[in-house]
Amino acid sequence: MKIKYINKRFIPALAIVMGLSSCLKDKNPQLDFSKLKPVVEISVPLTTDTGVPSPDNSGDGAANTFSFAFVASTSAIPYQIPVNYAYSKPSPGITATMAIDPKILDDYNDIEGTDLEVLPAQNYTISDLKVNIASGTQVAYLPINFVNTLALDATKSYALPIKIASAPGAEISGNYGSVIVLITIKNKYDGNYLGSGSIAFPPPTAGRSWTNLKKALKTIDANTVKADAADLGSSKFYMRLTVNADNSVTVTADPTSANTTIQNNPTNGASTYNPTTKTFTLHYKYVGASGDRVIDEVIKPAN
Description:
mainly beta; Immunoglobulin-like; 6-stranded mixed sheet
């Protein structure tokens, strides 16, 4: 038989390998999922009606966050917090009781170095803090309405810290048992736009132009937005556009701009905002090494 010719030195080695294999199997048993307990958490297994994103954790010990931006309104602004039954089987019928907990926000501010304020109670309503994850389902939602939002100070940063206070029949997630809703109050100029314009340099350098350049206008306060200056966003040239009571526009440099001399250029005309078409018609400039760079630009909504 061929087995007679196996090198005798191979047999002890084979025994060692088989022994190691046996040890490895003993130390790494199959996970018994039947012993896992159901967990209730604030996370998003599905996209919700309000487009709530998945929780974000910076990994530095701060709380998970959702971000929600809205334009202040006289009407109630709906929102919802997803509460998920995390288990291999659907919920048998679990009721989670939610709570507003300012301490979560205090801890977040300490870790992140922020000064977020808890959203005042008069600016939101929650009809019922109990969320019922019905039998046969795995997710339910805590409905929130943001109200009286025109009274909010757009220069302040607000947040709503929410946690799962209790969930009989399930464990509360250690990682996703709470969330902070980071609230951004957008002004009516905030949004996505397209810019078309030109820039002229002092002679003999030629100018250039651009058409339908994507621009995001971001809220600074109730009447001011931040935007890329000209086609120089990649060079970190940023401007602020302040819409005045007469719809004239004051152009200034954003403090973070690489060039801080950005300003109106009345020589070429007045900068204005058309509330009907929501269009900015701008004439501005900035100072370069060889003189003023003159910019004429029209910024209109992208859709």
